[in-house]
Amino acid sequence: MKIGIHKMSFYVPKFYLDINTLAHARGIDPLKYTNGLLTHKMSVAPFNQDIVTLAANATLNYLTKEDIKAIDLILFTTESGIDYSKSAATHLISILGLRNDVRALEMKQACYATTAALYFAKGHILQHPESKVLVIASDIAKYGLNSSGEPTQGAGAVSMIVSREPNIMVLEDQYGIHSEDIYDFWRPDGLDYAQVDGKFSNEMYKKFFLKTFDNYKMQTKHTLDDFAALTFHIPYPKIGLRSLELVADKANNPSLFENFYTSISYNKYIGNIYTGSLFLSIIALLEQGNLKAGERIGMFGYGSGAVAEFFSAKLVEGYKAHLNKELHEKQLSNRTELDMEKYAVYLTRKVTNDTVLEDDLDVKVQLKSITDYKRNYQNN
Ligand code: CAA
């Protein structure tokens, strides 16, 4: 049975900070960010957007009545959870009007969890071929003011439907996995911001990429020539490029580099969206690139702590017709730029209990209030 990604879309909040504004404010050469990290803008979430609303807004870009009838599993992946107990997935049942005989849960292993969710979704569909699985990746990445990770923040969600006979790509069966108990990036209980050992995290990312790619190649006997593109988890785009350079060179594999640059064309204007960032780059590659049906894409999922997986998928005939290119481009070009003062407020101030937020006609789904520690959402 062919199982894979049937629909995929992303949503980012309406605010962004230009990376040059940040560089000037911090007294850093802007070229360090634009050339050194290959990043240009970072999405910033307003108070009325949390992981639930980002996820709901991304899903509403494509959700149909047929999808609602068929979705019997929601896998919500995040590392910016809003409750220790109740999963963010349960909110989507009421906001999106999903079935009540649905399994709804939240999964965590840093940015890797979405890759695991695709694997579990596939297993579920093997048992229940008629079902569709809603796989969500939604995060708000915050390292704090004046931190080393500050230029690598962002916010957004990717929403996907996994089904049999998918319209976009078929997930292949082989994968290379590597896991170790390390502290490269983590956010302990009680801290609002991630802790990170920046240099070590870069080294681990590249080591895990080589291990999982080698492992995958050993199983499949595939070589670089078997891939139209290699895509990466993108905490910031330069690390993807540096990893690609470990296994390929521009002279012999020019198209892998061309496709890499295409794949970061949304990430570099959005920033790190943690769990969704690999899938954001896949959306960019499919929407902005020229890959053909039948071609294979390699994908590297990495989640600090750390678990990594290299896996692959093949494109389906007519896949372009099932993307949301214009909607995504419009979303990115309609955003509002923030100055440093407003950025600092959105980054540091939290929505607390007993708060009522104003109606926001720019968004479909918004956080309306928190009362008795319950979040109330509004679908405009
Ligand atoms: N002009 C052009 N380039 C410049 C420059 C200038 N004036 N100054 C510096 N650079 C270049 C450097 O040469 C370097 O490029 P290369 O990697 O190609 O050599 C690049 O800019 C970055 O320079 P530094 O390494 O000196 O930057 P830094 O010490 O400020 O740290 C960082 C960068 C480690 C990424 C930091 O931003 C950080 O900690 N980010 C968060 C952690 C992270 O994203 N880690 C990635 C792996 S972990 C992961 O993937 C999980 C996750 O989602 C977090």
UniProtKB/TrEMBL annotation:
Entry binding sites for (3S)-3-hydroxy-3-methylglutaryl-CoA: D29, Y143, N272
Signal peptide coordinates: none
Enzyme class: transferase
Protein's GO biological process: acetyl-CoA metabolic process
Transmembrane segments: none
InterPro entries: HMG_CoA_synt_C_dom, HMG_CoA_synth_N, HMG_CoA_synthase_prok, Thiolase-like
Record has rRNA processing as a keyword: no
UniProt protein name: Hydroxymethylglutaryl-CoA synthase
Taxonomic source organism: Acholeplasma laidlawii
